[in-house]
Amino acid sequence: MVAIYYILALIAWLIGAIFLLPLSLKKKYRSAIPARFFLFNNPKFKDAKVHFHACSYGEIQALTPIMRKFEDKAISVVTHTGFEAAKKISQNSRFLPFEIFLPFWLKKSKILVIFEAELWLMLVFVAKLNGSRVILINARISDRSYARYKKFSFFYATIFRYIDQVYAQSDLDKERLMSLGAKDIKVAGNVKSAFASQPGKIYKKPKERVIVLASTHEGEEKMLLENLKLSKNDKLVIAPRHPERFASVGEFVKEWSHKHGFEFDKFSQNGNFNRQITLLDTLGELVNVYAISDVVVLGGSFVSGIGGHNPIECANFNPILVSGEHVFNQKALFRLVSGVKFIKTNELNDVLSLYKERARIINKADITVIIDDIRSSYEQ
């Protein structure tokens, strides 16, 4: 099975390389594609006892409190934003290469810790071949993903053959993982709920009500602004999910602001919230803004296909928390938060006028068992 998979991956790479080269010229992929698919500026790790692997920025942020407990570590990621976040934790950070390179690139560690759904066959196979212990933490399978996983259950059964321990988010996730062939599963709760997010900077809370449109996607800014009536006692912060959209969202919001007589500014230019509308166009600042927010409207949930975003980080600061109804990827996390108001966009004004309940986290995971597991291998 592994040999056949490797051959198919090699064929896919040979065909796909033609299309990947021009794609790598785009700003979004300029670092990740050359590093992952051509090993450009992506050397092997330095020797490390524990190797953490996660996909992107959000996953690295969630893993950070665990990773900081281990000095001798390596971190691999998939996305550019994830890489930038990982480098702040350890210089021994790399992009995870495409699977055909892993037999020659991956170095032995005492333990490989994989976060959530990063299930790459060659990664776990080569790690086990090198003598590493492999654990999967924060494992979950959403309603939408489960049907797709079941169609390829034979493939996932092969992957789970090389994973020694699985820590699932819930009993339902445990059942689904077992049906796909996972063994030695423990329910540990959601890692993202275990650590209270703390602001890295403290900003003075404006006297006005602070409304944050957080982690918005294409089309959501327009939908929400069309259904939002700001008063002189409101300040609005707009935080697009992806940095490559900062410029285009900035142009749109600037035009909208001028049309409606609001002062507009970019946070990257002045670093404050003095204007009535501010575009948060700097990574790593959203948690600092949550700390001074009164209302958070969580994006990725008003358009179909995204599935919502993690509500835990903002709920930690107890704002009024508003979400769209499309949260199929985050149902497990929303069950850990009380007071969330789910709405359609045309209900936004009424909710901001009438809804007063504050969100709060009602079930924080105890992940001591995960840390102890990693440490037992780390100290051998």
Automatic annotation (TrEMBL):
Organism field: Campylobacter californiensis
Subcellular location: Cell membrane
Gene3D superfamilies, sorted: 3-Deoxy-D-manno-octulosonic-acid transferase, N-terminal domain, Glycogen Phosphorylase B
Enzyme kind, highest EC tier: transferase
Protein name: 3-deoxy-D-manno-octulosonic acid transferase
Family named by the database record: Belongs to the glycosyltransferase group 1 family.
Site, Transition state stabilizer: residue positions: 116, 192
Protein role: Involved in lipopolysaccharide (LPS) biosynthesis. Catalyzes the transfer of 3-deoxy-D-manno-octulosonate (Kdo) residue(s) from CMP-Kdo to lipid IV(A), the tetraacyldisaccharide-1,4'-bisphosphate precursor of lipid A.
Pfam family, one: Glycos_transf_N
GO cellular component labels: plasma membrane
